Write a sequence for this structure.
């Protein structure tokens, strides 16, 4: 659990500043579950440059509560959380100073989004909150006011969590939260998991990820793992001290994240994907009459693979599907083994390509269209689908037929501006295996929208 924090102060000498405004959003990694926002009477004058920067003046604070009046609420909302702030060292120091004046030792673990951004967004031109969120297309209002900056920090932190494929943030958070064994309350983890699509991570007492998996129902899948029989399952359940998760909004994003993270993290209890997940491919040739023929062959025998499959049967099922969908010739595609004409020709349903009645040019256009619909080769597109919350969508970026990465956006200009989109994207390895996963998914299911891009 995190407490996203932003504080505005009076300015002045080091350790003599007073708080003028505070915003704290309790964040469970997916959404805000509690918040506290208030002006604070610092009982001292505000520096003129701070008034100009924030718009907060002495008159506004005369009737505001003093710090001691809100101290209990701050303790309650930050209890059992890790404080997250942009330049956390400053905000945490200010809070501790105020509590010290009351004779109370306020201690919390902290994470700094400046440090995390330098790690996960190494190409950023600036790490100031304003310039950073602007470069990412993140909307921000009430800049230099506590709640406006806190809300911007939440969006930035969500982006950093999504980009953190090594799970540095989660592992560091668990280490900060726990001392030795986790409590019974923390072990009762299934209760707080959502029935949503995503990837979940099982951690040992050191915070290390020992197992991860994609699923369309996180709560149900984890519960199944904890109740499954077998020595390996019982050992996994015993070693698991915490489960974290990342909602993906849709299954394709979950599939790609699981594949990428299995190769990077190589968890103890997971089987690592094979070096090549496919064995067969869709291949094309031209017959003596100039008509394109399609066949499913072992991948090594295919000069120009036009679709990847994990077996001959899945390949033939797809070939049968596109033959029907695009009214292709069953005999040319090897589906019909008739010695002369196929059954469709005898029934009057065949267009006659197999004996040359339809010009090869028009027939071959349909064959090409059937290939392009389900193949990523040379395409520059963004696959859009449901996001993690209402108003958000996921974006999978493909350039020159290869996966570039994925991310989430909630404003149209973020997806229409390729520079902003590339900043939002978490890079991924554009391997043939990744293409196989995407193409396999698209052959079975649909995404909300496919948008062509031009660089």
């Amino acid at each position: 659990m995190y407490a996203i924090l932003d504080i505005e102060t009076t300015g002045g000498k080091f350790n003599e500043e007073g708080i003028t405004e505070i915003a704290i959003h309790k964040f469970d990694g997916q959404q805000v579950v509690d918040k506290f926002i208030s002006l604070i009477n610092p009982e001292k004058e505000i520096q003129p440059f701070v008034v100009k920067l924030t718009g907060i003046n002495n008159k506004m604070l005369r009737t505001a509560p003093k710090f001691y009046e809100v101290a209990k609420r701050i303790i309650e909302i930050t209890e059992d959380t890790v404080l997250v702030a942009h330049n956390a060292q400053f905000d945490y120091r200010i809070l501790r100073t105020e509590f010290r004046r009351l004779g109370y030792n306020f201690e919390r673990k902290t994470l700094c989004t400046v440090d995390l951004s330098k790690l996960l967004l190494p190409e950023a031109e600036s790490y100031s909150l304003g310039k950073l969120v602007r470069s990412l297309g993140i909307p921000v209002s009430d800049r230099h006011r506590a709640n406006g900056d806190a809300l911007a920090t939440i969006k930035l932190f969500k982006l950093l969590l999504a980009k953190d494929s090594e799970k540095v943030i989660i592992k560091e958070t668990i280490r900060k939260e726990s001392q030795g064994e986790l409590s019974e309350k923390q072990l009762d983890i299934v209760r707080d998991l959502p029935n949503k699509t995503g990837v979940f991570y099982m951690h040992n007492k050191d915070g290390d990820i020992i197992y991860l998996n994609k699923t369309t129902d996180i709560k149900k899948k984890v519960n199944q793992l904890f109740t499954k029989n077998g020595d390996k399952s019982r050992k996994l359940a015993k070693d698991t001290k915490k489960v974290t998760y990342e909602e993906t909004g849709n299954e394709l994003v979950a599939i790609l994240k699981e594949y990428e993270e299995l190769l990077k993290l190589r968890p103890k209890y997971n089987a690592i994907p094979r070096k090549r997940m496919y064995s067969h491919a869709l291949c094309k040739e031209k017959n003596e009459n100039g008509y394109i023929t399609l066949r499913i062959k072992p991948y090594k025998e295919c000069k120009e693979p036009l679709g990847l499959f994990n077996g001959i049967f899945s390949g033939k099922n797809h070939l049968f599907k596109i033959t029907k969908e695009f009214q292709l010739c069953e005999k040319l595609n090897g589906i019909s083994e008739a010695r002369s004409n196929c059954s469709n020709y005898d029934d009057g349903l065949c267009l006659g390509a197999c004996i040359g009645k339809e010009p090869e040019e028009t027939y071959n256009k349909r064959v090409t269209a059937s290939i392009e619909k389900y193949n990523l080769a040379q395409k520059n597109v963004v696959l859009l689908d449901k996001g993690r919350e209402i108003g958000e969508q996921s974006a999978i970026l493909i350039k020159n037929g290869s996966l570039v990465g994925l991310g989430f956006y909630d404003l149209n200009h973020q997806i229409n501006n390729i520079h902003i989109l590339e900043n939002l994207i978490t890079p991924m390895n554009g391997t043939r295996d990744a293409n196989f996963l995407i193409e396999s998914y698209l052959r079975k299911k649909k995404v909300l929208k496919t948008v062509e891009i031009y660089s």
Confidence is low (pLDDT under 50) at residues 179-183.
